[in-house]
């Protein structure tokens, strides 16, 4: 009897999705947990694996179709001996897979995680799950493998695995890309109408929502980045050797933001109807550019994270964003957001709130500027900071003092390390 391929249950905030691309066609042999189709929601693109191995009999919904939770979109003939039996190789592989010992926590493994664990002959009970309810995701297995490999490598080899915290194209590359696109559009005055992706439509909806429902106001300040740059320069090489991750600026900003939020809890709050919800935790969103648009993965309990953990998590988020591999859990929630337009060369901007959050910090380009210190003009690497906030619950006084607190912590980073 054919096995039904169903759309998985979406979270409560997601009502439908779009079939982006089928990776298999009717008549193709598929293996259990092999990716069949990509499904796009208004938050993420996720892969739907085959529930069983066999022959893909039919596809009920084609690319671009809108689908709902639990909807049947295809059938797989998984029973040997029927009209479309499994080839011997596929059947043998399925028997081999079935004989593979399953870990004790198999019940909370995602299909992709189960497949990877079986392929690498791992003990699933040793892997910590970060999904909902402790569910072990494919990313958890990959992280486990990376940590195991790092532990076996000598330090010199670990340093060779060096990468930017957030892999984004340089401003020069971005300009070249835009120039090429403009040139293509201008030749012959063509027009092209393209439907928004679900993510782009959702971004547009939320930005308009923020403008219409919140009283957004921005305040600005500037920070002398020399102390952070000096501290980073002195310790960067050792940091990378010991931890295998690059020491960037973002971990300093996350630490400073968390300390400032502790002092001004209304900036970490949100509005729910006529109520103000004060959050007793610090889930910091990090805005990341991706091929599909802006996404904001969340650093959960950032107040409990070390700088190593922050940098490692941001690096992982950046890579996942480029590969469109961020999970729903990783981009849902958040109590405050940080966005860094400086990587593209932005000198000053006014970021828009990420509803229902009440505050967002904008970082900008570090630029040498003449400053007056002790009556003398000196050159310092300065960065403009912008705080956009919801004036309904945050007064100007609190907003200004919040931003000054961040400035003071960054100009004396030892305070963050000593927690004074």
Please give a quick description of this structure.
The protein is of the alpha+beta class. The protein has helices at 88-99, 111-120, 138-152, 155-160, 171-186, 198-213, 226-243, 250-263, 307-322, 396-411, 414-418, and strands at residues 3-6, 16-22, 29-30, 35-40, 45-49, 54-59, 66-68, 72-77, 216-224, 270-272, 275-277, 284-286, 288-290, 293-295, 298-299, 336-340, 359-363, 367-373, 376-390.
Task: Describe the protein in words.
The chain contains 11 helices and 19 strands. By secondary structure, the chain is α+β, with helices and mostly antiparallel strands. The strands form 5 sheets. Strands 9, 12, 15, 16, 17, 18 and 19 form a 7-stranded mixed β-sheet that branches. A 4-stranded antiparallel β-sheet has the order 1-8-6-3, with no helix packed on it. A hairpin with a 2-residue loop joins strand 18 and strand 19. Helix 8 crosses helix 9 and helix 8 crosses helix 10. About 10% of the residues have low confidence.
């Amino acid at each position: 009897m054919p096995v039904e391929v169903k759309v998985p249950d979406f979270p409560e905030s997601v009502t439908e999705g779009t079939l982006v691309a089928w990776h298999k066609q009717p008549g193709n042999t598929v293996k259990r947990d092999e990716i069949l189709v990509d499904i796009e929601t208004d938050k993420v693109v996720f892969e739907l694996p085959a529930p069983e191995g066999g022959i893909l009999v039919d596809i009920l919904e084609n690319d671009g179709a809108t689908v709902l939770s639990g909807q049947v979109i295809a059938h797989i003939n998984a029973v040997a001996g029927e009209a479309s039996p499994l080839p011997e190789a596929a059947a043998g592989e399925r028997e081999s897979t079935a004989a593979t010992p399953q870990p004790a926590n198999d019940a909370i493994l995602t299909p992709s995680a189960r497949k990877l664990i079986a392929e690498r002959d791992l003990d699933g009970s040793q892997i910590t799950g970060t999904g909902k309810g402790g569910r072990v995701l494919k990313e958890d297995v990959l992280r486990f493998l990376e940590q195991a490999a790092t532990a076996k490598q000598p330090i010199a080899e670990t340093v060779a695995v060096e990468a930017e915290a957030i892999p984004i194209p340089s401003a020069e590359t971005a300009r070249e890309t835009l120039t090429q696109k403009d040139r293509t559009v201008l030749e012959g005055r063509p027009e092209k109408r393209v439907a928004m992706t679900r993510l782009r439509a959702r971004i547009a909806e939320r930005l308009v929502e923020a403008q219409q429902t919140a009283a957004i106001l921005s305040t600005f300040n500037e920070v002398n980045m020399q102390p952070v740059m000096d501290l980073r320069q002195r310790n960067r090489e050792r940091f990378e050797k010991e931890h295998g991750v690059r020491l960037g600026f973002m971990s300093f900003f996350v630490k400073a933001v968390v300390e400032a939020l502790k002092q001004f809890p209304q900036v970490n709050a949100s509005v729910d109807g006529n109520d103000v919800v004060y959050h007793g935790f610090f889930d910091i969103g990090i805005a990341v550019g991706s091929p599909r648009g802006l996404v904001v993965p969340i650093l959960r309990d950032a107040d409990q994270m070390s700088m190593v953990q922050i940098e490692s998590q941001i690096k992982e988020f950046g890579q996942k964003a480029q590969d469109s591999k961020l999970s729903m859990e990783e981009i849902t929630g958040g109590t405050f957001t940080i966005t860094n337009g400086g990587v593209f060369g932005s000198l000053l901007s006014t970021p828009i709130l990420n509803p229902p959050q009440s505050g967002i910090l904008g970082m900008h380009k570090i630029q040498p500027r003449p400053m007056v210190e002790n009556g003398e003009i000196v050159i310092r690497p300065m960065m403009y900071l912008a705080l956009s906030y919801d004036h309904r619950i945050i007064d100007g006084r609190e907003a200004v003092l919040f931003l000054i607190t961040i400035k003071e912590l960054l100009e004396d980073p030892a305070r963050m390390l000593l927690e004074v």
